[in-house]
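Below is a concrete protein record.
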Amino acid sequence: MENGSQRKWQFGGNEELNTAAISVRGALAMLMNNVNSPDDGDHHPQRPTIMLGRGDPTEFRSFWTTQSAVDAVTDALQSFKFNSYCPTGGVLEARRAIAEYLSRDLSHKLLAEDVYLTGGCTQAIEIMVSVLARPGSNILLPRPGYPQYEARASFDHLEVRHFDLLPEKGWEVDLDAVEALADHNTSAIVIINPSNPCGNVFTHQHLEKIAETAKKLGIFVISDEVYGHLTFGSNPFVPMGKFSSTVPVITLGSISKTWIVPGWKLGWIVKNDPKGIFDKTGIVDSIKNYLDITTDPATFIQGAIPQIFERTKETFFSNIIGIMREAADIVYEMIKEIPCLTCPHKPQGSMVVLVKLNLSTLEGIDDDIQFCLKLAKEESVIVLPGKNN
C-alpha cells in the first residue's frame, strides 16, 4: 500500500441475491423511480402518485383494522407477559388459538402442535421453499403466480416448474400439465387460493381434483391462503386442508390481509396431516430446525392473537368484504371501457386482479413492463407488470 498499489479485497456481494427484479418490492422500486419529479425537465406539475400495485390496504382509511385488534395488542404489551423470547414454533396460546380458528372450516381438529408461527406469510414461504430445496429436487408453481416463491426458489437452487392457470376456465389449474411436469424429484405443488394475482377462488370440486392429482403423483400441496375468506363472488372460500385425508397439506396464512395489519408480521405454517406423513418423511423436523435458526415474530403480537380472534366481530369482516366487492365491480366495469385492457375473469376474492394488455393498440410499447414504466412516468399511476408472474 505504501507504493500506491491497490489492495485486492477478499470479499464481495452474494450474486445469488440479485433476484430483486422478480420480487414485488423490486418491481415497485423500479416503477417509483420512473415517476416524474417536479424538476424532471419535462415541465410536468407535481401530482400525487396513485399506488395500485402494492397489496397494502392500510393506505386507505376504509381498510383500517378493528379497534379490538389494537386493544388486544395494547393489553398484551401492558401485561408484561410477552417481552421475552418465545419458544420454537411460537407462543403456545397463540398456536392454540390459530388451530381453533382454522379448525372451524375443517372436518378434522387441528392442535397447537400443528401450527408454527412465522414473521408473516413471506417468512412462511421462505421456510417451506428452503425445507424442500434438496439437491436435484423441484417444485411446481402456478403461472401466473406470486413472485416471492420463484425468488426464494432461485436463491435456494430449487428447480421451479410452472403449470398454467387457465383464464378461459376461471383461472383453474391445468391439471394435465401438472401431471406432465412432475417426476420422481418433485416434492410439492403450490396453489394460492384466493388467488394472487388472478383474483379467482377455486371451487370445492376443483380443489378435490388438485388433491387427487397430487396424491397420484406422490407429492403434497402447499396452499397459500393469506387471503382466506376474503371472497365476494359466487365461489365461497374452501380451505385445502379439507382434503388432507387424500393428500397431506401445508397451509400458509397470516393476519396481514384479513385483519388489515401487514406490518404486524404474524403468519403461520400449518400441517393438515391426519396420517402423520410429514412426520414420517422428515418435513416436520426440517421446519422445526429452520425455526431454530431464524427470527421469530414479535412476542407481544403473538400474545395478542387469542384476544384478536375472540373479540373481532363478524361485522368487521363483512364491512371489509362489502368494500372489496364494490371496488371489484368498479374495476371490472371500468376495464371494459379501456380499449387496450381486457379482464379475462371477474375477480371473486383477494385484493388483486390480473388484466390482459393488447399491445397491438399501443404505440411504442413492446411489453407490459414498458407499459407500466410509461404509466408511472406520464400519469404517476403504479400498477405491477405481469411479466414475472
The first strand starts at residue 50 and ends at 51. Residues 26-63+315-382 form a domain with the Aspartate Aminotransferase, domain 1 fold (CATH 3.90.1150.10). The chain has two domains: 26-63+315-382, 83-311.
